[in-house]
């Protein structure tokens, strides 16, 4: 009998929290950063390196996997954990966000969303019930409700319409999820754009439905960092303290520190791997663009004190050379550098919250980034 | 004081030989396959995986490295071993072959070869003396003489002219190499196309100059496998038994087994990584094209009995998916699969030669490839 999904809050420090999510595939220490494995692979990085970096959980994208290789095929092959050989927890999104951003001819209606696949142009319908069915076939530990996400800035009327629709979809998802094994969790998604009252109404509606966790959706979609932080600060208090709070699609290391401080527990973002492939390394000294000419003769590693072999052992000159020479190994190594950086940032945050000194920790990290801005070039 | 370069023959089995090369960076068990790290990186594969596969030595390309990042820069950064963080032996080619195949406006003269860089169009001269200087700056354990390589089929007169020029260049390389540290080795290259008397004359000329090892160049350049094997069989006996014999640019697993049987000790080829990136896996059951549709639902690994994690642990369905989805991880995993396959093939060959049963070993391997040709699709 697998252990049921649960969340334990271990310590709080102001609004910041640290805790642990239990799943059938193991524990997730929070605050947690989830590397993104869009197509059942973290781009350019071997699973072993993702684990070595310290990730407790990865995210996979329902939209991509339902189209290729298809949820039914993954299910026959034993589910996503077996398919991609990731034995630890997996969260899947609902597919809604990417339907709306990637598919062509996307039509949102009460029943669900109809779109053309970006792969072969086939017409596909994604309803709340289908989004749950797909995620159950994939076998993720944490599934997300289908929601409609509106790009900011947007009219209040449009934001409210999408929020209300998302609430009705939340209820249908919740009902469809009743067939799920007991160890699977379903999260609701708070919508409402940058309007605090809509956010609160969304949160209340979701709480009435009683989800295993609550996410903030519809941010990191074009708004400024100020708007994002304000919305998170206003929304988090409306989310149950005894459930994990997940900020979808966020973000930079600075975004994550600032939203941990506002009470968020879970994060996902493609930045570590996307920036890595483009030659941008996140380091203690701030971001470093390894393609810049100044690194061509630099025998120093990115950070001699890192526990990450790629960060500690390879010279900046060699990493620079790999990018200049178009060797894919460069992107792989910098993706690993960044995955370690993000996980170490989270480990430091957890330790600081447990000791009650998170504000100091975040301040020191930001000071280090700032201090080095004068001596080494940045993004 | 680093140990000097040496070669010890441990056993022979017919013409096949097994032995050990000692270098300042460690031992090379022969027969040895050298993965190709053209630009100081084995394409798409982390150094740790190359070592885990069992490679004792890698090859790096002088032509590419002299143009970018430049031999002088690598030297300042501590030499190639430090630069690429490969602590084991490294062999560098002379650059000649790639000048003649990759550069534009290449002009061969007595003094050397003048060409335009494929990177920026700059005019560069590569003389025998410069080829040695560059390789000493790179710091490889085994350097190669500059030679002229003629594509087959070719006129006998042209083959002979290039062979004589290569001999004169061999002498100049040998003289230039007198400045090298005592632990570095220089190999001569037997030329002469598909003409046994020219090959023999070339070998005799080189032996008079007394090299640390001898290579067969000018093969795997367009001739049939029959011509290649015949030339190797005719040339090997003219090469000193007490020195390593290196067959440049060869080849497929079958080529390698057949030329080990003809007395060759060292091999290099881009096939394991190039084929891996293109979805072709070398396995016990012969080559497998993982992109073929039949693998989409196949839960079996490429070979459950392999010691290679990528070969043993990932399903064919997952590897197929990675290629279909354009995930670079697919090419990386299949490159690792192939590097392990080649190294295991060599380890098996060494063990079989030591036991005096190499012909049986080669026969069994080829039988396995053949047996499976009926039940699984091939290249």
Structural account:
Chain A is of the alpha/beta class and 379 residues long. In chain A, 42% of the residues lie in helices and 18% in strands. Chain A is built from 15 helices and 16 strands. Chain A has helices at residues 47-53, 62-67, 71-76, 80-84, 96-102, 128-138, 156-176, 196-209, 225-235, 253-260, 271-277, 309-313, 316-324, 328-355, 358-371, and strands spanning 6-13, 16-23, 26-30, 32-35, 58-60, 90-92, 104-108, 113-116, 123-126, 142-144, 185-190, 213-216, 245-247, 266-269, 280-281, 288-289. In chain A, the strands form 5 sheets. In chain A, strands 4-14-13-12-11-10 form a 6-stranded parallel β-sheet. In chain A, 55% of the residues are buried. The model of chain A is unreliable at 374-379 (pLDDT under 50). The A-B interface holds A 39-46, 64, 68-69, 73, 76-78, 83-85, 296-297, 299, 313-315, 317-318, 321-322, 324-325, 327-329, 331-333 and B 39-46, 64, 68-69, 73, 76-78, 83-85, 296-297, 299, 313-315, 317-318, 321-322, 324-325, 327-329, 332-333.
């Amino acid at each position: 009998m697998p252990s049921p999904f649960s969340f334990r809050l271990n310590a709080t420090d102001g609004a910041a929290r640290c805790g642990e999510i239990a799943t059938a595939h193991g524990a997730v220490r929070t605050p947690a950063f989830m590397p993104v494995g869009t197509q059942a692979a973290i781009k350019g990085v071997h699973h072993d390196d993702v684990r070595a970096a310290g990730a407790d959980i990865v995210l996979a994208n329902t939209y991509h996997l339902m189209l290729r290789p298809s949820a039914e095929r993954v299910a026959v092959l034993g589910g996503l954990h077996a398919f991609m050989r990731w034995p630890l927890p997996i969260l899947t999104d609902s597919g809604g966000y990417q339907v709306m951003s990637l598919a062509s001819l996307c039509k949102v209606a009460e029943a669900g969303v109809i779109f053309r696949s970006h792969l072969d142009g086939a017409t596909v319908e994604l309803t709340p019930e289908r989004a749950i069915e797909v995620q159950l076939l994939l076998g993720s530990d944490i599934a997300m409700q289908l929601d409609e996400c509106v790009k900011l800035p947007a009219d209040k009327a449009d934001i409210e319409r999408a929020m209300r629709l998302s609430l009705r979809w939340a209820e249908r998802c919740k009902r469809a999820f009743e067939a799920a094994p007991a160890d699977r969790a379903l999260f609701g998604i708070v919508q409402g754009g940058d309007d605090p009252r809509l956010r609160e109404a969304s949160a209340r509606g979701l709480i009435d439905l009683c989800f295993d966790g609550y996410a903030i959706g519809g941010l990191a979609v074009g708004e400024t960092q100020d708007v994002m932080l304000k919305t998170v600060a206003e929304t988090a208090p409306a989310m149950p303290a005894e459930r994990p709070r997940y900020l979808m699609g966020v973000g930079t290391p600075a975004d994550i520190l600032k939203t941990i401080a506002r009470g968020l527990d879970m994060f996902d973002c493609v930045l570590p791997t996307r920036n890595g492939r483009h030659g941008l390394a996140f380091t203690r000294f701030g971001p470093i663009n390894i393609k810049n000419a100044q690194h061509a003769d630099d025998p120093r590693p990115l950070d001699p004190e890192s526990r990450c072999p790629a960060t500690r052992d390879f010279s900046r000159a060699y990493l620079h050379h790999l990018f200049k020479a178009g060797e894919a190994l460069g992107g792989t190594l910098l993706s690993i550098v960044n995955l370690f950086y993000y996980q170490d940032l989270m480990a430091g945050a957890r330790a600081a919250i447990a000791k009650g000194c998170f504000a100091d920790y975040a301040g020191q990290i930001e000071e280090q980034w700032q201090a080095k801005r004068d001596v080494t070039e940045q993004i």
